Amino acid sequence: MAFNNKKKNANYISAKESRAIARENRKITQEIEKKRNRKHIPEEEYVTKMKNPENCVEFDNVQTYFFTDIGTVKSVDGVSFDVPQGKTVGIVGESGCGKSVTSLSLMQLVQRPSGQTVGGEIRFNTGDHVYNVVNTPTSVMQKLRGNYMSMIFQEPMTSLNPVLRIGEQVDEVIALHNPDMTKDDVKTRTIQMLEMVGIANKEGVYRMYPHELSGGMRQRIMIAMALACNPRLIIADEPTTALDVTIQAQILDLLRGLKDKINSSIMLITHDLGVVAEMADYVVVMYAGRVVEKGTAREIFKDPRHPYTIGLMKSKPVVGKYTEKLYSIPGSVPNPIDMPNYCYFKDRCEMCVDGCEGAYPGMYQISPTHFVSCYRCAAEAVGKEGDTKNEQ
Ligand SMILES: Nc1ncnc2c1ncn2[C@@H]1O[C@H](COP(=O)(O)OP(=O)(O)OP(=O)(O)O)[C@@H](O)[C@H]1O
Ligand SMILES: [Mg+2]
């Protein structure tokens, strides 16, 4: 019958199939949740050692998946990179490549139970302890968040509570992390923080509601909240995307100044290469849930090797250079539920070589700090990163 011969459509799944997937997912996520919700988790399960004690964070083959009713989305699949102490690491890549999910995995804020970090280690150095965040129980995590690591979220308007005054919101953060402070001390600290982020009318702003402030001011409030407890690591997820360029420059200056003042590390997530060039010491380029290239900012900007990075650089406007039309990388990111078993960029790549149709390429090392996941670099590689997973 013609009906039976109909070719299966990869983009369609029946209600029955979806139910079966949901059932399977529940089994997997319930098991992970059960393990996580145990009463007394022994310390040796989550206290660990850094590979390099100079680092603040080490991502080691991290896998964060979303178990959805239409299949498993491998949002972060085998990501490894380090954030050295006191340095800024920029994470770039197009929308949906897993930048936010990588940082949420570090904060343990991925939407559970469907989102789970199912593999790898994220080692976080607080100075006197090293925690593997992936296995750290929620109660310990609450002490790490805010005090040691904090996040400036993507959209200040949705992250601030519209019905509470600015002062109350910043006070809450400070009071929560410093239970022995008196009310007056908390208010003094809040005013200090507002001053530190460059708000002139600090007493007035203390009493205002979020809607009374401009976008730039709201972003400053978010930064004040994030820095209230002098964290060792600041995660800034697109801190300037909603702002115009002059305010953007001010906010970046502010962030840089504050970082030096409290000597913390910054993980700066953005798709604005200009921001990265200005701020970052190291750059990590992500594509479809994987790191495709990483190195110092100089290496990535002056000597990009992965065709995707080269494409990103070409698509950036340059002052003084005339072009008819800006370059755009052809094609689009593959469907995250159904990733190919070869290089994820191959179908969009204009520089393919022999071997590209093989397994997903490992991380080839071309300098002490520069790693590229591309077969083009295989010949000149001085080594290979051992822990890159080649899942097929
Ligand atoms: N709660 C969720 N459920 C299912 N899939 C999700 C969920 N959150 C994120 N994803 C998927 O994970 C992938 C990575 O998303 P992520 O938010 O990390 O992208 P991003 O790189 O931060 O993009 P942007 O630049 O737009 O912020 C996307 O394919 C997205 O669809
Ligand atoms: Mg994001």
Protein architecture, described:
There is one protein chain. The chain has 392 residues and is α/β, with parallel strands linked by helices. It has a domain at 309-384. Helices cover 33% and strands 20% of the residues. It has helices at residues 2-5, 15-36, 99-107, 138-144, 156-159, 166-177, 183-196, 202-206, 215-227, 245-262, 273-279, 297-302, 307-314, and strands at residues 55-68, 71-84, 88-92, 115-125, 130-132, 149-152, 233-237, 265-269, 282-287, 290-296, 364-365, 371-372, 383-384. The strands form two sheets. A nine-stranded mixed β-sheet has the order 6-7-8-3-9-10-12-11-13, sandwiched between helices. A four-stranded antiparallel β-sheet has the order 2-1-4-5. The protein is globular, with a radius of gyration of 23 Å. Mean pLDDT is 86; it is low at 1-7 and 387-392. Residues 66, 68, 73, 75, 93, 95-101, 111, 114-115, 271, 336 line the site of adenosine-5'-triphosphate. Adenosine-5'-triphosphate binds at residues 66, 68, 73, 75, 93, 95-101, 111, 114-115, 271, 336. Residues 57-313 form the ABC transporter domain. One of its GO terms (biological process) is peptide transport. It holds the Pfam family oligo_HPY.
Which ligands does the model contain, each kind named once?
adenosine-5'-triphosphate, magnesium ion
Terminal residue distance: 35 Å
Rg over CA atoms, rounded to whole Å, is 23 Å
- Which structural class do the helices and strands define? alpha/beta
Round the mean pLDDT to the nearest integer and report it: 86
* SSE arrangement, N to C: HHEEEHEEHEHHHHHEHEHEEHHEEE
